[in-house]
Amino acid sequence: MFKYTLAATLDEMDREGITVAECPLRSMRCLSLQNGRIVGINTARFDSSAEVRTALIHEDGHFASGAFYLPYSPYQLKAQAEYRADKAAVLKHIPYVTEDFLRKAYALYRDMGYSFGAEEKA
Q1: Are 40 and 21 in contact (CB under 8 A)?
Q2: Cα separation, 12 vs 70, whole angstroms
Q3: Tens digits of per-residue pLDDT, 12-71?
Q4: Contacts of 34 (CB under 8 A, 6+ apart)
Q5: What is d(CA 19, CA 14) in angstroms, rounded to the nearest whole number?
Q6: Dist CA 8 CA 57 (whole Å)
Q7: C-alpha–C-alpha distance, residues 113 and 9, integer Å
Q8: d(CA 91, CA 97)
Q9: Phi and psi for 39 in degrees, rounded to 5?
C-alpha cells in the first residue's frame, strides 16, 4: 500500500526530475521555477508536514500542467495558472474517486476536528 507521506511526495518529485530546495522565502511560502524544474520552499512557514506536502503537490501541479507565470504577470494570468496547477494536482493525486467518496472524506475529516476555512468562521 502506498504511504501518503511527505517523504513519499519528495521521492516522487525527485523521480520526476523536480528539485525541492529549502529557501528562506520572505513573501511566500513556496514557489516553482519552470527553468531548472526547481521548487523553493520555506518549511518554517508551515504548521505541519501535511501542509508542506499539500503545497508541494500544488507546485507539482504547475509542472504537470505547464502553468507558470512571472511575478509581474497580470492577475488574471496568475489566477488561471494557479487554477490549472490545482486542477492538475487534484487529477494526479486524487484521480479515481467519486463525488460521493469525496463528500464522505470531507465529513470524516470534519468529524475528526479538521477545519475547512470560511464555513467554520461563520
Answers
A1: yes
A2: 26
A3: 999 999 999 999 998 899 999 999 999 999 999 999 888 999 999 999 999 999 999 998
A4: 62, 63, 68
A5: 6
A6: 11
A7: 25
A8: 10
A9: -115, 125
pLDDT digit string (tens) for 67-85? 999 989 999 999 999 999 9
Give the Cα-Cα-Cα angle 21, 23, 28 (nearest 5 degrees).
Answer: 115
| Rounded CA separation 104/46 (Å) | 27
The helix (run of H) or strand (run of E) holding residue 62 is helix 49-65
Q: Which amino acid is at 25?
A: L
Q: How far apart are CA 89 and CA 57, in angstroms?
A: 6
Cell digits of residue 17: 526530475
CA distance 70 to 75: 10
pLDDT at 122 over 90: no
- Tens digits of per-residue pLDDT, 92-118? 988 778 889 889 988 998 899 887 765
Rounded Cα distance between 47 and 5, Å, is: 15
The type of residue at 51 is: E
Instruction: Please report the pLDDT score of residue 2 as a whole number.
Output: 54
